[in-house]
Amino acid sequence: MSTVLETEEHRALRDAVAALGKRYGRDYMTGVIREGSHPRELWSEAAKLGYLGVNLPEEYGGGGGGMAELSIVLEELGAAGSPLLMMVVSPAICGTVIARFGTEAQKRRWLPGLADGGVTMAFGITEPDAGSNSHRITTTARRDGKEWLLTGRKVFVSGVDIADATLVVGRTEDARTGTLKPCLFIVPRETPGFGRTPIDMELQAPEKQFELVLDDVRLPAEALVGDEDAGLLQLFAGLNPERIMTAAFGIGMGRYALGKAVEYARTRQVWKTPIGAHQAIAHPLATAHIDLELARLMMQKAARLYDDGDDVGAGEAANMAKYAAGEACVSAVDQAVHTLGGNGLTREYGLASLVTAARVARIAPVSREMILNYVSHQSLGLPKSY
Fold this sequence. Notes:
This protein is an alpha+beta fold. Helix content is 51%, strand content 14%.
């Protein structure tokens, strides 16, 4: 795929990560899933090479880059068939929020581990009755002396079983107005009252999904990230990278599927020529390639705006990138399976499991319909229906 909009350093990073991904590949990831394990070897090697913390500040052990670099890492691992979903959460959301808004003590405590892969952090925002409506979050934190008591429930929290801590979005009462405002708390895994239950998913992935129950979880004052009054700003500072990285996840998966289909179409011969010579096969694959390229352009724009500090511009572009990548990913996977016919459903070719996995890029972390709502209201200025 063309990389003319990237720097020489970006291209070098892309090539290096692609080489790492190829050493593992889809067979490695499906083996990890089959064993019910985690991709620890790939995570560890990616960390050792400096890829996991490429977006975090150098003074805390990171690479000093931004979302442009981190999205390249995830996209290329995905294109090799071995994406690391926890990259969306640990360095992108949690690392970014702590780096931008955390206290100096929080940065020293968490960022070096997030950068070198020795520490993993999960992110809890979705609730059973709130869905995409963050204004309905009912997980609340109340003061108890200098400490906090956190109570509530979260669902679809990835990787809590392997995470050292979870960044939980709760709400606190504004002393001046009495209204509830969002705040973020770091909750270590073994904190009393912090319970987790796995959610039985049809989706096959090494990263498991959990429901969390927080029953008067007692936290020290320093568990609150940054400034209590900057909660909403901090929250969106984490959600924009989440959307950019979800786009990278989708683009990488789509590229992997498309690559398999193109290879098959070049060599599979039923009549006189390879099936890829027939336009009914070739044109849908060409369309999938175009859509993936367009999605990547928007992802690059979103990453650039975010890294330049334009949170408002990045918000629009990140939502658009996530939408475009989700659609392109689903279409590419669907067309890849269709190109292979019955072979597309066999374990040998490794595409059938992506039919379900591709939907993640459409659904999470926010549905395509909510993104269309965002664009309708924020970009086009249309009235709300809710």
